Every structure is written in C-alpha cells, then in structure tokens.
Amino acid sequence: MSLLLRFQDQPRYELRRLTLTLAEICRSIAASGAGTQKRFTRFSNAVTRARPLMRETGPGRTGLLAQLETAGACLERTFLDLRLHELKPDDESIEVLLFTERALQLHADFISRPASNTSAEAAKNLSSASKGLALALRAVKTDDANFIPNLKFSRIYSGLEKTVCAVNDYTELLARTF
What we know:
Blueprint: H1 2-8, H2 10-30, H3 36-57, H4 59-84, H5 91-112, H6 119-142, H7 147-177
Helix pairs in contact: 1-2, 2-3, 2-4, 2-5, 3-4, 4-7, 5-6, 5-7, 6-7
C-alpha cells in the first residue's frame, strides 16, 4: 500500500512517512535509545523537504505538516530537557511516549486508508496519555519531599503534555483534511 501511495499521492505518502518517523522517535526516547538526536535531525530535514510539496496541494496539508512539525518540536524539547538534567524517562513518561507512539502509528494507517476507523483508537491512546500525565503532574506537585527531582520531572511532564496536545491537534486536523 505504501508504494502505491507514493506514486498516487506523494503528499499523503510524505505525511505518512513523517508521522511514522515521529512515532519511531517516541519509541526511541521511551527506550532511552542512542541515536535519538540523529532521528530528530532527519525528521527536521524531511519536514523541510516536504514543505514545498505540501504548499502545492493547498492549505489543509500544509497545516498538517505544520502541526506535525509542532509536535516534533515539543517532543525534541522534552528530549533535550531529559538530556540536560541527565535523566532517563520514568515509568509515567515511558507510558505517555508509548501511547503517543501508538496514536501516531494509527494516524499513519489512517493516512494510508482514510476509510479505516483508526481515529477512535488513536483518540483513546491520546486520552490515556493525557490522563497519565495529569496524574503524574499532580503527584509531582504535591510531593514536597523531593523538590528538585520533582521540579525536573514537572518540566518533562509539561513538555510531554504539549506534545500530546500537538498530536491531538494533528488528529483533529487529519480528520477534517481526509
């Protein structure tokens, strides 16, 4: 299906590819994998190359690309915060990253087959990620014993929350565009 999509609708193929790349980055961060920074660089370069193609197809797909780029930027900021504080993702962060990864994979499926009913499952994944983040943020804010570590993870959780919101916005735009 992917090869056929590449020749039939190049902009949709590129959106699908970028969506899968962002999903891969989520998994890489969750696994504390090496090479994540290189993945962000490749993602950024691919977005730059796709921008002229999306402009030719109209504002809908340009908006999708911009929203995907925003999600990538929020995720990269969170990754850089983890590196700055020399932290590995905790269980809550890993859970959010994996829910977000699954939602992005479902979005890629939806881009390939817009008739598929993957958007409801993607919304459930994003909702689970948001709920997990809300609980984690509440726990961090109420625990006074570990102020400095909690402050660091509060920043990480806030970055993940922005990422989930950006992916959620991408979901809504995707449903309206296809």
